[in-house]
Structures are given as C-alpha cells and as structure tokens.
Amino acid sequence: MNLKTKKLALRNGNQMTAEGAIKAGCKFFAGYPITPASGIYKGLIDLLPLNNGIAISSPDEISALAYCVGASMRGVKAMTATSGPGWALMIETVQYAMITETPVVICVVQRLGPCTGGATQGAQGDILITEFASSGGYTIPVLYPTNSKECYELTVEAFNWTEKYRTPVVLLTDKEVGMTTESIDYNKLNAPPNANRHVITDHDADYENWKMYGFDSPDMIAKFAPVGGKVKVTATGSAHNTKGYLKKNDPETLATLKHLEDKIQAHRDEMVLVKEDNEKDADTLVISFGITARTMKDAVRKARAEGRKVSSLTIYSMFPIPQKEILNAAKGCRNVIIAEENISGQYRMLLEPILKEYTVIGVNKLGAMITPDEILERIVNL
Fold it and tell me: Thinking of the domain 274-380, which architecture would CATH place it in?
C-alpha cells in the first residue's frame, strides 16, 4: 500500500499507529496478539514486508520486546504493541532498553484491569504502571493521542524521541482510541520530520575516545554504535560505567545511572505537547487526555453555552509531566478538574502536588467512558 497516494479513508487508531510507524522508518516489529492492540500487530504484519521491513509473531510478550531491543541494537528502528497484561510481562526488558540506552517504541493500548481484566472494555488505568515501571523511578517518556489522526502523528513523534534521546518511549492509547474508526484526510496529517539516532563513524573527531554511554554534560546523548559493527559495544543490564563495564559502587557508574534521568530532564522542554483552550476570566480548568479529552471538550462547550467560564487543557505528552504548561493554563483559576477513566485518579495524584494552590477535583469512572454530562455536573456543582 502506497500511503502517499491515499486521500480519504476510514481508519481506526490502531491502523493509523501502524501507518505512522511506517512513516517514521520502522523496519522491525515483533508482537503477540492481544486485544485491543491486535490491530497494530495485524497492520505491521501487512505493511512492513511491503516497505523493506520485517514483522514477526513472537511466542509471548517478553520475547516480543526482547526481539525489538535486539533489532534496535543492530541499528534498526523497532516497535512492539501490547496491552496492560503484556506490558506487565515486558517491564524487565523495558528496563534493559533503558540502561543500555537502546531506542525502542512500545505502544500500550489500555483495557480494563487488573490482571487479564476486561479484554474488550476500555480504561485509562495503566498510567502509573506505564510510567513507574523501572526500578529506581527513572522517567519513561509517554505520549497519548486522542484520535486516529493523532495516533499517526504521535507514533512518528515517539520514534523521534526514542531515536534522539536513546531511551524507550511509550505510545499510550486506550481501547476507544485504538478501535474507533474515523474518517482520515491524508492531506491533513501533520507528522513531524523523521529523526534518526546519531551513529559514530571512523570519520568523527571523537571516534578514538568514543564511549557508548559517554557524556560531558546532562543534556548530552552519546552517539550510537550498532552491535556487530566496526566498534566494540558492551551491553549489560547491570550497573556499568560509560564504556559499559560492570563496576560496582564506582563514581563513574553511579554518574552513568544518574545520567539516564538527567538527559530526560535536560530535554524536557523539547518534550512538551499540550493543547490549551483558554477562556478569559475562567475560574475552572479541566484537564484530560486520550478518549476522555474528547468528552472534556464537549463538556466545556456545554458549560460555556450556559455562561460558565471554563478553560481546558489536553495533554499529549504525559511524561515528563508538562508542569510549566499545566500551571500556566491554571493561572487565574480557582478549581482544576482532572477527568480520567480509572478508579483512583492516577494522573490526578501526580498533579496534586504541582497544583497545591488550587482546589483539585477528580472525575473518575470504572468500566465505561466518562460522559460529557458527568464532567459538566462536576463543573456546575463547584
């Protein structure tokens, strides 16, 4: 299929995620079928062989991500897709990709948990387990689209982030975004240009002194070398120094571990994607993401029609948390409502310390989408 010849088509979020991966230059996919992410699996099984890539079915989620990390270590852009139960199995390999600074994209299409949960029921309950999957609490960049078009665009962005910052990146969606079919105008897709990892060559001035995990400043991302290439690469899941050598309690080893977080924080202002809809003199701000952000927009429209002053903020870059943008959107408000389809208000718990000067209220639901009227009711009853 030649994506360049298409104009209008009906596509769901999973299909557009697969097409976004092709646009981003993905050449390897390994996956294990799981509802509601199987559409990505099917899409890349079909598309990658037509685009000089490889797609394979793995025996389980653990091996799926391990295959992808291995492909990326050879210098190939790689991706897998799963849902909550599969992500739980992948966590050790996510950490391996993190400590070896191996680029890889993992799409997690959420469903109702815990455990096997409800395979055909949507949810937004994997926010905390997605972000805090690493031992040590290192930041995992997470992007979250609200519709099929954005699935395409943010998949490209996820590949760009993983390539530029040499870290695993999660594209987090939900069953409704992944499986809802919408009309796509291919002429209006607005994906960023592709980014590629910087690869060390023998023509580089720093070739003789190059280190796989080396850095001179918090914002520095070491140049990549593929396993099996001209340069020796040492990769281990154990704590290591800038050359990849295991050295316990060595100051350089500890600094190398710290740099895993420092490099993300140094580039956090480049990793902000939000959409503000500000109302002059608003006293309430509503924040949401994914499918619930679409519900939020309808609720805010209804509230304004009733003469209420309400602003909204859609968050696409969930992590690192866009603190400055959240505080800027809340400026002048008294109340902040955070709507999310989970039982405990997972993102709200993370934002409350940031929004300590405001009254923070959650709209939460389990097993079904939050309706516009449920958000509107909370706005009216403030």
Answer: 3-Layer(aba) Sandwich (3.40)
> Measuring CA to CA, how many Å separate 233 from each of 200, 223, 227?
12, 12, 6
Distance CA 318, CA 349 (A): 13
Q: How far is CA 128 from CA 60, 137, 193, in A?
A: 23, 11, 30
Cβ contacts of residue 81 below 8 Å, gap of 6+?
14, 17, 29, 31, 37, 40, 41, 44, 106, 107, 108, 109
Residues 343 and 341: their CA atoms lie apart, in Å, by 7
- What does the domain layout of the chain look like in residue ranges? 3-188, 198-271, 274-380
Fold match between domain 3-188 and domain 274-380:
yes
**All residues at 6 or more sequence positions from 279 whose CB lies less than 8 Å from its CB, including other chains:** 304, 309, 310, 311
**Average predicted confidence (pLDDT) for the chain:** 96
Copy the structure tokens of residue 281: 């003199």
Question: Would the pLDDT of 248 be above 90?
Answer: no
Which amino acid appears at position 256 of this protein? T
Query: What CATH number labels 3-188?
Result: 3.40.50.970
Q: Are 171 and 155 in contact (CB under 8 A)?
A: yes
pLDDT digits (tens, 9 = 90+) for 91-133: 999 999 999 999 999 999 999 999 999 999 999 999 999 999 9
Tell me the DSSP string of 298-343: HHHHHHHHTT--EEEEEESEEES--HHHHHHHHTT-SEEEEEESSS
- Which residue in the block uniquely carries the two structure tokens 């139960």? 85
Report the C-alpha gap between 271 and 316 in whole angstroms. Answer: 10
Beta-strand ranges (E) seen in 39-99 are 54-57, 78-82
How crowded is the C-beta side of 58, counted as CA atoms within 13 Å? 25
135-152 residue pLDDT tens:
999 999 999 999 999 999
For the CA atoms of the chain, what is the radius of gyration?
21
Tell me the whole-structure pTM to 2 decimals: 0.96
